[in-house]
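Example S7 (structure tokens).
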């Protein structure tokens, strides 16, 4: 609860949050409220209900908000470079900016939790990935892609390949380059059903670009089990066999366990 309060009342824009919260309390339709506030409002109600019933529990909303809060608060404490720009995008009413910023924050926060140093790189430069992760043994560039297919991307597997070809152009080629692609959880059945074709497309992407050291496809899965919720982070990783820079062991050794 402390982490959630710190996020809502300290690390996000207070006026923006207050305005959206008032709209929510006034009964505004969810589609007219920022997605982050919808989650925060529901989580707040659920926590108050747990307190009232003198019980504890976890819900998808509480999990999503607390995970985001823990990562943002820690990055704020450590003065992670470029964080404020991502926080501005996180509360943007351009929901593409919101979803992209949320995924970049999740990946950077996960890397920070694994004792690496991270910084968000400046946007608007022709060749600039999203995150630079550093370790005493070296550095690696990270490009994050939130997978939200457009209407012209009906073939979901093909659109993942297209994302890799866009992402690879962002790498400076001075360091290993890793692409993270978030797979929408509602698409995971299709993702698994076509795993063979997916693997072929990823292998093709790696073969066509030596600047890509590895491609990691990630998704969060939440499901109910025995009156409780279970959360899993699924990650499917592929490494390039002939990269310009190999995927560093210091990064890969504990990466897929998020």
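Recovered sequence:
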């Amino acid at each position: 609860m402390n982490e959630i309060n710190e996020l809502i009342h300290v690390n996000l824009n207070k006026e923006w949050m207050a305005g959206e919260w008032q709209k929510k309390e006034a009964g505004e339709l969810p589609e007219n409220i920022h997605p982050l506030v919808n989650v925060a409002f529901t989580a707040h109600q659920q926590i108050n209900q747990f307190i009232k019933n003198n019980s504890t529990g976890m819900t998808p909303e509480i999990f999503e908000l607390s995970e985001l809060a823990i990562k943002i608060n820690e990055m704020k404490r450590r003065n992670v470079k470029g964080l404020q720009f991502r926080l501005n995008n996180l509360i943007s009413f351009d929901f593409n900016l919101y979803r992209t910023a949320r995924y970049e924050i999740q990946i950077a926060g996960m890397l920070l939790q694994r004792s690496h140093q991270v910084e968000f790189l400046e946007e608007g430069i022709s060749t600039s990935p999203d995150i630079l992760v550093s370790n005493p043994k070296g550095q690696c560039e990270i490009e994050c892609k939130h997978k939200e297919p457009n209407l012209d991307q009906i073939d979901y597997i093909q659109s993942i390949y297209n994302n890799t070809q866009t992402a690879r152009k962002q790498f400076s080629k001075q360091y290993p380059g890793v692409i993270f692609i978030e797979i929408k959880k509602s698409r995971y059945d299709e993702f698994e059903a076509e795993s063979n074709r997916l693997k072929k497309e990823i292998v093709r992407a790696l073969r066509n670009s030596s600047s890509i050291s590895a491609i990691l496809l990630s998704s969060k899965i939440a499901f109910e089990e025995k009156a409780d919720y279970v959360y899993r982070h699924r990650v499917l990783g592929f490494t390039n066999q002939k990269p310009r820079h190999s995927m560093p062991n210091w990064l890969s050794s504990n990466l897929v366990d998020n």
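Notes on this example. The CA atoms of residues 47 and 225 lie 20 Å apart.
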